[in-house]
């Protein structure tokens, strides 16, 4: 108690009853509830399910604006090890780079049994064996968003590369 104010610090989610006493006399009770208001993925609306041009971008299937969170927050994306990491940048951490101290929303991964070594580059391009998808690449891939060990959203992608957008790509 400082200046007549009682400060209670919640350490985990839940409710507790705080009883205020003066000696053995109860002066009041209040229920204190701690809620986890950290944002998490609530819903995902995919932008598409086809890749027909190369270089193929993750944005053709999934955009930040198509992800709905449980509470208001700005979503950042960091690309590491062939995956896209969706997170909320915490003040005081390195901007736009997930470092473990930020709020992890989910990890985006692209997999395929038909297209070799599918991954996501550090600029959001969908690759095969470390290179842009080549013209005439065909197959099915799955884009998965995983959070807390569970699939939050999955989209099947029909890959049928018919056009090269950039002459330096997909050679």
Explained architecture:
The chain has 171 residues and is mainly β. Helix content is 0%, strand content 51%. It has a six-stranded mixed beta sheet, with no helix packed on it. Strands 5, 10, 11 and 12 form a four-stranded antiparallel beta sheet that branches. It has a two-stranded antiparallel ribbon with strand order 1-2.
How would you briefly describe this protein structure?
The protein is mainly beta and 171 residues long. The protein has strands at 14-22, 25-34, 41-44, 50-54, 56-57, 67-69, 76-80, 83-88, 103-111, 118-120, 125-128, 131-132, 138-147, 150-164. The model has no long low-confidence stretch (mean pLDDT 91).
Report the count of strand segments. Answer: 14
* Largest sheet composition: 6 strands, mixed
Q: Name the structural class.
A: mainly beta
Helix content: under 10%
Q: Ends: how far apart?
A: 71 Å
Radius of gyration: 23 Å
Mean pLDDT reading: 91
Number of helical regions = 0
Beta-strand residue percentage:
over 45%
Oligomer: single chain
Shape: elongated
In spatial order, strands of the major sheet run: 4-14-13-9-8-7
Uncertain segments are: none
């Amino acid at each position: 108690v400082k200046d007549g104010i009682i400060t209670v610090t919640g350490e985990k989610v839940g409710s507790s009853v705080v009883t205020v006493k003066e000696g053995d006399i109860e002066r009041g009770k209040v229920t204190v509830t701690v809620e986890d208001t950290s944002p998490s993925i609530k819903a995902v609306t995919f932008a598409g399910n086809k890749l027909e041009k190369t270089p193929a971008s993750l944005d053709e299937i999934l955009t930040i604006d198509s992800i709905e969170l449980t509470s208001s927050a700005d979503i950042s994306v960091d690309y590491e090890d062939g995956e896209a990491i969706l997170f909320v940048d915490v003040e005081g951490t390195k901007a736009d780079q997930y470092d473990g101290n930020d709020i992890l929303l989910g990890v985006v991964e692209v997999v395929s049994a038909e297209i070799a070594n599918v991954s996501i580059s550090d600029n959001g391009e969908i690759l095969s064996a470390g290179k842009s998808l080549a013209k005439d690449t065909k197959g099915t891939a799955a884009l998965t968003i995983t959070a807390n060990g569970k699939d939050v959203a999955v989209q099947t992608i029909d890959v049928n590369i018919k056009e090269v957008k950039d002459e330096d790509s997909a050679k």
